[in-house]
Design brief:
about 300 residues; alpha/beta; UDP-N-acetylmuramoyl-L-alanine:D-glutamate ligase; four-stranded mixed sheet
Length: about 300
Amino acid sequence: MHVTMTLNPAVDVTWQVRDVLRIGAVHAVGQETRTPGGKGLNVAKMLAAQGREVVAGGLVGQNQADWFSSMLRSMGVTPRLLSVDHDTRTNVMVTGADGREMKFNQSGFPDLEPDWPCLQKYLQSLVSGCSVAVFSGSLPARFPSDTYARIMEPFLKAGCAVALDTAGEALVRAARHPGLILKPNRDELSGWIGQPLTDDASLISAVRALSARHEIVMVSDGSVGAYFAQGRTVWLARAPDVRAVDTTGAGDALLGQFCSDYFPDRKLTEACMARAVAAGAAACEQYGTPLPDIARIAELSAYVSVERVASD
């Protein structure tokens, strides 16, 4: 069973406007898409779409708790969210007729303080039966940067595989635990190591250094695709050409597809990498973060080229 953890969920709203986006102009909204969002929830949707048993854990504001649970169940995800007496944030993506987009992300739970005894009891309720735990996304504003490092400990002690997708100091602190599956994007990796990754050689060098301590390091790189590292070997899976209308959740789709294929055998194959990158590309073709199109992922995976770019 997979468990995903989303401490900073959002109602993902996408507005499609009929004209080109311009600062200072009035734009008519042609269509609205509204889905339960947050990186861990997006991972859970992908896992469920692939037929995996998945429990969505994390926090949710009381104002949206019933809607989140109902929507997730309709997608095949088992919701076990912890309700808090604060409003769930709304994130808005606006896409124009020319394909350009603008994102507006609210701060999540700005006044919520962590209740550690409550959280520890809640986490223990999720550990039983879990084989793979995925921790994704940003933290609520008042949660300390070591939050992920702390809340993944019960899962690690229970022998669960742990995947992490976050950024900044939260990533630095949590990645001190060895043996993780890590999925930063290029900018997040640059922030992690504290230096710009201006070319592919510097990125590959950074990935190899980190993969020496972790099971898998994958770095998503937008329309280029993604790098995957195991030990000292690094592969580049190049993304297929797609018409991107909304990039929300693309990295989450990549991680969810990867976890679906990689576990339980834990073999990093070219097919596994290709399908992960195809899932990210397919997510870009949809507005919002609905259930993934599994047939489209299979179709696109045939157009993903995988090459080894570094090895001893």
